[in-house]
Fold:
Amino acid sequence: MTRPIIAVLVVVALALAGVAPAAASHGTGTECSFQVTATDASGTEVTVDQAPSSVVVLQPSAAQTMWEIGAQDKVVGMPKNPFTSYLNGTEGKTDVVGEQSTVLQSRVVDLDPDLVLAPNITNADTVRSLRDAGLTVYFFEDAKSLEDVYQKTLLTGHLVGACEGADSRTDAMRSEAEEVRNAVAGEERPKVLYALGGGYTAGEGTFVHELITAAGGENIAATAGISSYKPISNEVVVQQNPDWIVIPEGRQLPAGEAVNSTTAIQEGQVLRVNPNYLNQAGPLNTIPLQRMAEAFHPDAFAADATPTATATGSSSTGDTATATDAGGAGETVTPTDDSATETPGANGPGFTAVVALVAALVVAVLARRE
Structure:
């Protein structure tokens, strides 16, 4: 997924997964049971005979999920870059990616993990090669909704033997999202542009789109008929005239006299968000969800009514309304402009790492990485 970086973006980006385990035997409640069998994005039936003690995650979103469900001690290999630097306790973990977030297959094989988690942004050839080397690899589906993010979190917990943490974290995510939806219900929806980077945005059929709408906004990309992660022209932006522009920290705002005439720019309504929380499909998505809702509808969040999302295994700094030039994206969203197969982004949405560089690249590209 070196495509335009979208590799890291989306995606990251987004391999989330809404794939519920098929014919899976996992625990009920908070107790895991094994074997667990689930069919992944490649159509492969993956069986995990017992709770893994060593896990390699190939993209930042998978790392975020492992940390948030309390399974970080099982991780022996992971991407160690700006897109995972917010996670506490990564010392001692082996870095399994090289330039542009390319997976170092020999390093993964040398670790001989019980299980490898590969978000959707991971190159399919890499997945096949690791399987040919005798490793058990689960290849996640792209996450296209919040429900996909919930299901990916639950599935990860079942695969690694952390059902209690996954169930608890997913319940918290659902509750936080429901609180936000209830708070903004009936409010007038401002028009919102998500400037993913490199001219890309998140349209209909993405979990980022659902986060914007759940926060009480109208995603102008969807209104303009854009789906997935694709470019949006200045002409469309001007025509739609967004009230708010949401942009990853460290990214450049769209430029040009026409764009400068939009309500968002004229009224200074620009919200800069932590791309690791918004573009990586994972439990921390509820943090930017709440920040967007509070920015779009401040009157709906009076004192004790403000919902609170928390990061359980990360060093969380939250989102800000001012530029921090922090850069960094994570996985990535995957733009689909007929030629691109991965997402652009700054942390790519999805269980993806692709766009990280694209987004970081593209958005400076989100690093080829879901």
Q: What stands out?
A: DSSP finds 13 helices and 14 strands in the chain.
